[in-house]
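Example (one chain per record):
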Amino acid sequence: MDELRDWLSHNWDPDLTVGEWWERLGLAGWSAPSLPADRYGRGLSRTDSVRVAEAISGFGALGAPAGLGLLLAGPTIADHGNREQIDRYVRDIVIGATAWCQLFSEPGAGSDLAGLTTRAIQDGDEWIVNGQKVWTSGGQYADLGMLIARTNPEVPKHQGITWFALDMHQPGVEVRPLRELTGNALFNEVFLTDARAPSTAVIGGLHNGWAVANTTLMHERSGLGSGGGSGAAGAVLPGTVANQRGARAGDFVSAEGKRRTRNRSGDATPGSAKLLIDAAKANGTAADPLIRQDLVRLHTLGEIGRYNSLRWKAARASGRDIPGLANISKLQMSEMVRLSSDLGLRIAGVAGTLHAYDEASRAALVEATGDPMAGVLAGMALFAPAPSIYGGTDQIQRNIIGERVLGLPKEPGNERTVPFSELPKNR
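Predicted structure:
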């Protein structure tokens, strides 16, 4: 970290605009240090990349442009894109010029993602896209989308899919928010009607989208899993829709050198042992031996995730891998969130039955209860079912571990041999 701190001392200037600072940070390889050195990164492990983010925050500088671009699109394109695509897309991601969303799931293709029906039909040097996507995180802020669409229905369903970088600002792309139990709208549904993507936006080769999508999902599960850092957005958003790159960078860090984060109900990091420990100490429930026991259990799960990340780093350094670790981490994260939900409500007590859905009612809730954490803990509980579903359900993670890691037999079926057009469809 000495090299980073030295670089920060010579480059951080709070009077720079966000865009100017992110350009310095990204082109020096510090925005996405886990990417290869020749692809706008520094070739560091995920664990060391988390340490880089912590060091930048601790120094008092604004961190990297968080979001799905840095978490998913950048690493996927760095792995599968050609040089022109890397310079076009990954460069803009690491400097915060573009924000991305993920256009994978559909109303009839969630757990069975390969059953997607969104079609892309070639028209000269372009592809015309029609279909519907759902559970699209950050779609309302996105400049580009990671789209998988069916480009050949006459082959088995895993073989006729292509991964595109889709312009979200064009006619034919409609984004509608999906309101959650928490009152927030992190997810959206997206309708594609004669949207277009140039052939140069095909990442990883025509009809090879399933392999590319699995790379995206691997990065997603690693990022969402315990010990894997976080893909959550920070205090300032990348891209042209949020339009924050012209703001003063120093306005987004506090005087103590810690990054400002949003403090809305439900925005707390899922599975955070420290947050719950602090809440239990504040209201006296830390004296309850059963709560203390489960707080230790939650902390232990977090430490196991961190050590697994270190194991993965050591394995990669010696040219090996740990099959299924990303799936295990995702399962562990789901377990931590469920435990956090239960613990949070026990810590909050009767105040955990109350929830606020806008800023005004949040202030009223704090005034009524005298507990600024009660609404946060209630929001965590309302959000808790989501992590076991998004990023691949817990059941799918177990199937992957069973089939691909343990070598157990696959479920019987002919979906890998019969053309997709001949398979029965959900109606």
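Caption: DSSP finds twelve helices and eight strands in the chain.
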